[in-house]
Design brief:
Blueprint (H helix, E strand, L loop, with lengths): L1 E9 L8 H9 L2 E9 L5 E9 L1 H13 L3 E11 L9 H5 L5 E4 L4 E4 L10 H4 L5 E9 L3
Antiparallel strand pairs: 1-3, 1-4, 2-3, 4-7, 5-6
The structure holds iron/sulfur cluster (2 copies).
The site of one iron/sulfur cluster has 15 residues, from loops.
Length: about 140
Amino acid sequence: MYSRMLVLRFPKTEVEKPIVCYLARDFDLTFNILKATILPRKEGVMVMELSGTRKNFTLGVEYLKKHNIQVQAVGQDIKRNKKKCTHCGACIAVCPTGALSIKRPEMMVVFDHKKCSICGLCVPACPPRAMEIRTTGTPILK
Ligand code: SF4
Ligand code: SF4
């Protein structure tokens, strides 16, 4: 099973067509729509998780692109908001990769982005919510 979080941007000519339903009917894909918005100029934006076999996933995305729908894969990144961080050290205990560690003798918590697996465990562990997950979008099947 292959699964990706996608952002779809529909041109106004396609907004009212049930194109996403055809992904299930014709390509045996399942989808979970997390957000759907119609922008003022009538373009549509939809965030969804799309799942199926790798082959069907590729065929489904090609089908969307044939209908001039822009398809982007959603990625995630994690950042530490240095203004919010109090260097309490709570995140170090939950970080499985050593991306968060204490620098001695300053007793400052340092974040090594290269070691981060983006597991997200530090986000709820941080009392002032200094660890933030950010969502990015990159074109898929260009
Ligand atoms: S838990 Fe949050 S506030 Fe505490 S050191 Fe980690 S990032 Fe900073
Ligand atoms: S997201 Fe996971 S690996 Fe990255 S700093 Fe937080 S706990 Fe560590």
